[in-house]
Structures are given as structure tokens and as C-alpha cells.
Amino acid sequence: MPGWEQLIYLLEGVPLTLSISIISFLIGIAIGLPLAFTKIYEKEIAFVVDAYEKIFRGIPEIVLMLLFFFGLGPFFPTPFNNAFFVACFVLGLRSGANQSHIYRGAIRGVGDEQMLAGTSVGFSKWRAIWYIMIPQVFTFSTAGLGSEYALLIKDSAYVYVLALLDVTKRADQLRINTGDVTWYIIAALVYIALTFPLAFALDRWGNKRKNKIGL
Amino acid sequence: MTDYVMEAKHVYKTYRIKGEKKGDVKIVEAVKDVSLQIRKGDIKLIFGPSGSGKSTFLRCMDMLDIPDKGEIYLGDECLTVKGLDLNKARARIGFVFQHIYLFRHLTALGNVELALRQVLKLPKEEARKRAMAALEEVKITDCINKYPAQLSGGQAQRVGIARAIARQPDIILLDEPTSALDPELTGEVIDTLRDLAHEGTTMLIVSHEMPFAREVAEEMIFYDEGHIIETGSPMGFFNAPNTDRAKQFMDRIINRTTR
């Protein structure tokens, strides 16, 4: 039977797992939103967005993490010698590519008419996007964002390769020390506990909001 | 100084639509050499068959569609000059859409307030006061906190009108403001427009509401196939239009409404 102290040691990895997922999710928003709107409303440079998406959805996260950490770390110790930063950065870049995809569908769902109405009251394109499109785009994206968040929680386990002490790494240490594979099962349960409530809450918020604004 | 609030000079606009077959492109000449002057307080009404380009012309006036050729003036300012800040110009023009297009994520009040706050940059209380005044003007005061999805078509269009007038624009362009509404809801919107007319609001309206036109319009403009075919007083059009085409169209419309 796993001991309490060991269990607590495992759970001490939760803040790290959570913070990597949340920070990379936020980086993903900051990258994904401008990319999605650029793709749709700045046709001349839309190819940049395509290239970005193909690159960051195509390369394994582990490869990028190793590349940034060991490739750039020696030359730019700040920030690339910091494993936590590299983890958030790489997952954020990847999430930006995914979220760009999610928002694009949502923008089409919100419709061009909302932009037209915004333009007609005197907004510039990008200010109409900020005040009129983005609030609606989030409502449209909750389902996709929920699964994207779950993906980030899972993918945060890749930081294993950077020797960060997240849930996965700790489970592995415990297995090595005790010879008990139950630790992996406990780690699995922890991951499910981390993904499920937020995805659920996001979905509920989205549905409530959609009802209200009649989408 | 010009006498006109707004003026169109020899405006042209064509656009392409995809045909039925793949790669088939049809060019539609929606606006061909259209000129029009509007003075302060004028109410002009454009009517004509659907697909004739009236709406495209109205959008050109607001530069929501950019004309291929010709000039649009807002007062002394030429909007068709390259590099002009069109957003500033559009802030001085109200536009009411056939399909309303209220901002769905904002309440009725939010819809009216948004541009006052973020385009005109009015302080909060001032914006609130003006938004409330506009909503009172269109007689929407009991549902200012409702979202567009919770409003009836007529209420929504009146909020649309409030959104257009709240900025106190030089002119209001209305693109078939009642055409998308159920027949029993057009009355309340027409009443609102009548109120605006009596207050001397400058308006260019695309509409087929003939009784309303007869009552408030100074001038009616018959528009077909991208041209202004005939211009005249409502009395003229109702009694005896000069052109055959206008005559036929008036007959059809009057028969339809009295049927």
C-alpha cells in the first residue's frame, strides 16, 4: 500500500503540472487569437499563419523542448536555461497553433455581419475585433478550448525530459524507490481529476452564455 | 462650404458572384453612374426591384462597399480619397441594416452605448445619458437589459435605429429597415421612423413602405439595374410616374399592398 507521505510527495507535483498547463494555455490565447484573425481578415499575410500552424503542430513537443533547452540554453541562459520557462514556452507555441484553429471556426460562426455592424458604427477593423468579435468568439470556442486545456494538462508530462518534478516524474521516482507500479495508476487518476472539472465548467459556462445570446 | 450633408458623384460599383458552374464568374453592375445630393433635413427614399443594386449603393454611401469609381462626399470631406480615415467618417453616419445585426453579446443598452464609449470616447455618465435618450426616442425603455436574442424583431430593429442615432450622426442610411420583419411588426418601426422624420432627421432610406414614403419623403428615387431611373415627389409617383418602368413597378407594389 502506498504511504501517505509518498502520496503527498506525488501531489506536490500538482502545482507544477497545473501552472505549466495554465501558463501555456494563456500563451496559446495570446498567440492563437491574433493568428486566427490575421488568417481571416489579413488575407495577404495569411500564409504566415498557415506556416506557423503546420510547423508547431507538426514537430513533437519533446523535440522542441530539448532543442530550446539544450540548443539555446547555453547561448541564452536567460530564459532558455530555465526548464519551467522552456516547458511553458513550447507548449504555449503549440497551443497557439491549435487555438488559432479553434478560433478560426468560431470567427466564421460569429459571422461577418457582426464585423460589418461594428465597422458601421465607426470601429476600425482591429478595434471591432476586440470589442465585438472576441467576446463572441470565446463563447463559440468553449468546447474546443476545453479539450485543448485537457491536452495541455496531459502534455505537461513531457517536462519529464527536462527533469522537472511534475506529477509524472514524481510517480516514476516513487515506482523506482518502492517497486510499486500503483503509483502510475494514482498519477493517472490525478490527471483525470485535473482535466475533468475545468473542461466541464468551461462547457457549462459556454452553454449558458450561448443560451443567453441565442447562438 | 457645400449645401449638402452628403453627396454621391458618378458612383460606380461592380462585383463578382460565382456562377452555378465551377469557375463561372458573373459580373454584376450594381451601381452605374449614380449621383445624388442630400441636404440637411432631407428625407429621400430609394425604391426599386430587388437585386437592382439599391443596397449596394447605400453601402457605398457609408463606404462599407468601396466604390470602383466616383466620389462620395460627407459635407466637405471627400470619402473616396485614398488614405482617409474612414472610421472617423463612418462615426458620423448612422447605418441601419435590413437584418439588424445587433451585437449579440451585448444588451440593448450595451449595443447603443458601445460606440459612444469606444468610438466617440465619451465619459461613462455622458454615454449612458445619450444611450438612454436614444432608447427613449425609439420607445425601448422597458427592455434595455435584454439581449438581442430576447427581443422581438420590431424591438431589435428599434434598438438598431437607436444605435444609429445615438452618435448624433449627420445622416442616417437605412437599408430596408422593415423588410426582414413580420408584417405585424413593421408598424412600430415605421412609427419610430416617422418620429425621427418629424424631428428633422436627415435620412436616406431604401424601402418599399409606400404609405410611409408618401407621408414623409420629400423625394422618391426609383432605382433599377444600377441606375436612378426617375426622381420625383411622392405625389408624382403615386399619380403618374414619367417612365414606364416606374409605372409598372408602382402598379405592382400598390396592388400588392392593397390586395
Chart the SSEs and their pairings:
The complex is a heterodimer of chains A (215) and B (259).
Chain A: H1 4-11, H2 14-41, H3 46-58, H4 61-72, H5 77-80, H6 83-110, H7 112-120, H8 125-155, H9 167-178, H10 182-213
Helix pairs in contact in A: 1-9, 2-3, 2-6, 2-8, 3-6, 4-6, 6-8, 7-8, 8-10, 9-10
Chain B: E1 4-18, E2 25-39, E3 43-47, H1 54-61, E4 69-74, E5 77-78, H2 86-91, E6 93-96, H3 108-118, H4 124-137, H5 153-165, E7 171-175, H6 183-198, E8 203-206, H7 210-216, E9 219-224, E10 227-232, H8 234-239, H9 244-258
Parallel strand pairs in B: 3-8, 3-9, 6-7, 7-8
Antiparallel strand pairs in B: 1-2, 1-4, 4-5, 9-10
Sheet-strand content of chain A, in percent, reads under 5%
The Cα radius of gyration of chain B reads 19 Å
CATH fold descriptor of chain B? Rossmann fold
**Helicity of chain A, as a percent range:** over 70%
- Percentage beta strand of chain B: 25-35%
Spell out the CATH superfamily of chain A. MetI-like
Low-confidence stretches of chain B: none
Instruction: Work out the helix count of chain B.
Output: 9
Measured distance between first and last alpha carbons of chain A: 51 Å
Average pLDDT number of chain A: 92
- The overall average pLDDT of chain B, rounded, is 92
Biggest sheet of chain B, open or closed, and with what strands and sense? 6 strands, mixed
Explain the overall architecture.
The complex is a heterodimer of chains A (215) and B (259). By secondary structure, chain A is mainly α. Chain A has one domain: MetI-like fold, CATH 1.10.3720. Helix content of chain A is 82%, strand content 0%. Chain B has one domain (4-258): Rossmann fold, CATH 3.40.50. Chain B is built from nine helices and ten strands. A six-stranded mixed sheet of chain B has the order 6-7-8-3-9-10, with helices on both faces. In chain B, strands 2-1-4-5 form a four-stranded antiparallel sheet, covered by helices on one side. In chain B, a hairpin with a 2-residue loop joins strand 9 and strand 10. The chains are: A mainly alpha (215), B alpha/beta (259). Chain A binds chain B through residues 113-114, 116-124, 127, 131-132, 135-136, 139, 212-215, and chain B through 62, 64, 87-88, 90-93, 95, 97, 99, 101-105, 114-115, 118-120, 147-150, 163-164, 167.
